[in-house]
Design a protein that fits this description.
This protein has 565 residues and is α/β, with parallel strands linked by helices. Strands 3-2-4-5-7-6 form a six-stranded parallel β-sheet, sandwiched between helices. Strands 15-14-16-17-19-18 form a six-stranded parallel β-sheet, with helices on both faces. β4 (69-73), α4 (77-92) and β5 form a beta-alpha-beta unit. α3 (51-65) runs parallel beside α4 (77-92), α6 (138-150) runs parallel beside α8 (172-184) and α11 (226-236) packs parallel to α14 (320-333). It is globular.
């Protein structure tokens, strides 16, 4: 019938109607038509080589835009591959929807092609999942997964699309009626706000504190709270400490930035206002000896369960931006400010200047063969030289990410993506593609270890295919942490002549990989070569890989987490 739609078309039409503009994934049986129809409906489909990278892209897209990132996978193995991205979204609390085709319902439990109970498989990694069992259920199912992904604490959701449902048909008029009903029934939660009495308690604690600290993380970044954070910092004069992906909400070079005095401010603060950051391993669980045993936490989180888990002195359940607005209003009505001469501000400032001076002295040296510091300084200066809009920096690796966190400077919000709460390796190229799609006006610069790059290196072809302004810088030190670091006593056994478990091919020509697809590759080993490659690649804003040869014995095994390995 000329006026009919099949299930694939209705899926695409539903997502387009409800505001979806991008979809990431790998097409194949039974969802190829879903991808093609989505493109017809005005949704940009970004086709990857692997569902894992596509899933990481979808998760990061949700974080960067505040709208659910979509991942489309085939059934069975494709769904399993996609779980990497779905779980990454859940752990980082980013909105994402994974959509997978599945086996024909009538052949369930009979060993059908790529059969898997996908609803059961996604349960540990999603906050909501639903199967469309009939074509008429599609619009409502699409609306529900989109809405659940952003409601309350954001996270990953899953939509299961059986093959038979995708092949069913419906009239255009009936489809429109179902879409209108689903749209009318959508549920958008109002951001939670705590009672004004709790806000007054928080302000009172900050006002009376001798050594207050403001800590903020990627939850505040997701909540677009940067304006209110800057206002709070500058109105009160309280030093602040961002988590790695909170960097840039307030400029890293702000006079009250305390990242360079992290141990001091954590160990000495008496009241800590923690906004959009969890007291997990990244913040040492809020426990001594890293924190003072008597510190009073004011924890701002959209999730009440998170606050109950952490048991702070005061919990404020609500949207980060809304809560900070309320705190700022209360302070404006009865202002206070520590001032530059306050003993706490002076102590923090003195420690920051001392540590920055020591770091800059190390960075000033041109060390060849490269250590991690010399190329990182050159990259930092090249990025800062671009001004605004600042590039989105994607960072992954052990030493590469650790050093980059200390050296690279973020001056704008949501311009740093890294391994995140889960310490996930392999996110790099997926995150780059998501950043380029979410922020087409910005250059994207990935600073990656060679091991991290290897997880998703094939996606450099995707960069070239979509002509994305992404420059990937690979710190090539010959392996995980730097190749073979074993002692002679460890090199024994029948396979002692094999390469070390942590080593790769020495001097690997990673730059040649992108050249195979028509991109630009650079091989660099000196400061001048690196500066030239950065200048040219940043200027032309086309897909490039810069292969930076690093001394294999620079850096440390396990980066800064030797105690875990």
């Amino acid at each position: 019938m000329a006026d009919s739609l099949d299930g694939s078309s209705l899926v695409a039409k539903s997502f387009a109607r409800f505001g979806v503009t991008h979809m990431f994934g790998v097409s194949g049986i039974p969802v190829t038509s879903v991808a093609n129809r989505a493109v017809q409906m005005g949704v940009r489909f970004v086709a990857f080589h692997n569902e894992q990278s596509a899933g990481y892209a979808a998760s990061a897209y949700g974080y960067l835009t505040g709208h659910p990132g979509l991942l489309l996978t085939v059934s069975g193995p494709g769904c399993v591959h996609g779980l990497a991205g779905l779980s990454n979204a859940m752990i980082n609390t980013w909105p994402m929807v994974m959509i997978s085709g599945s086996s024909d319902q009538k052949d369930s439990a009979r060993g059908d092609f790529q059969e898997l109970d996908q609803i059961e498989a996604v349960k540990p990694f999603s906050k909501f999942s639903v199967k469309a069992k009939d074509i008429k259920e599609i619009p409502n199912c699409v609306a529900r997964v989109l809405d659940h992904s952003v409601s309350g604490r954001p996270g990953g959701c899953y939509l299961d699309l059986p093959t038979d449902v995708l092949h069913q048909t419906i009239t255009e008029s009936e489809a429109e009626k179902l879409l209108a009903e689903a749209e009318k029934g959508r549920n958008f939660e109002e951001p939670k706000v705590p009672p004004s009495s709790e806000i007054e308690k928080a302000v009172g604690l900050l006002r009376k504190a001798e050594r207050p600290l403001i800590v903020f993380g990627k939850g505040a970044a997701y909540g677009r709270a940067e304006g209110e954070l800057r206002k709070l910092v500058e109105r009160t004069g309280i030093p602040f400490l961002p988590t790695p992906m909170g960097k840039g909400l307030v400029n890293d070079d702000h006079e009250l930035a305390a990242s360079a005095a992290r141990s001091l401010v954590l160990g000495k603060c008496d009241v800590a206002l923690v906004v959009g950051a969890r007291l997990n391993w990244l913040l040492h669980f809020g426990e001594s000896p890293k924190w003072d045993k008597d510190v009073k936490f004011i924890l701002v989180d959209v999730c009440e369960e998170e606050i109950k888990l952490r048991k702070p002195h005061l919990g404020l359940v609500g949207d980060a931006k809304k809560v900070l607005e309320m705190i700022n209003k209360a302070i404006k009505d009865d202002p206070f400010c520590l001032g530059k001469s306050h003993p706490w501000v002076e102590a923090v400032s003195k420690k920051v200047k001392h540590n920055v001076s020591r770091m800059e002295a190390q960075l000033a040296k041109d060390v060849v063969p490269f250590n991690f510091l010399t190329p990182m300084r050159i990259i930092r200066d090249a990025i800062l030289g671009l001004g605004s809009p600042a590039p989105v920096v994607v960072s992954e690796g052990a030493n590469t990410m650790d050093v980059g966190r200390s050296v690279l400077v973020q001056i704008e919000p949501r311009t740093r993506l890294d391994a995140g709460t889960w310490g996930t390796m392999g996110v790099g190229l997926g995150y780059c593609i998501a950043a380029a799609m979410a922020n087409p006006e910005r250059l994207v610069v990935a600073v990656e270890g060679d091991s991290g790059f290897g997880f998703s290196a094939m996606e450099v072809e995707t960069l070239v295919r979509y002509k994305l302004p992404v420059v990937v810088i690979v710190f090539n030190n010959g392996g995980v942490y730097g190749g073979d670091r074993r002692s002679p006593e460890e090199v024994t056994g029948p396979f002692k002549d094999d390469p070390a478990p942590t080593s790769f091919v020495p001097g690997a020509a990673y730059h040649s990989l992108i050249e195979a697809f028509g991109g630009k590759g650079y091989l660099v080993g000196t400061p001048d070569e690196l500066k030239s490659a950065l200048s040219e690649s940043f200027s032309v804003r086309k897909p490039a890989v810069i292969n930076v040869i690093i001394d294999p014995f620079a850096g440390a095994e396990s980066g800064r987490m030797q105690h875990k390995n």
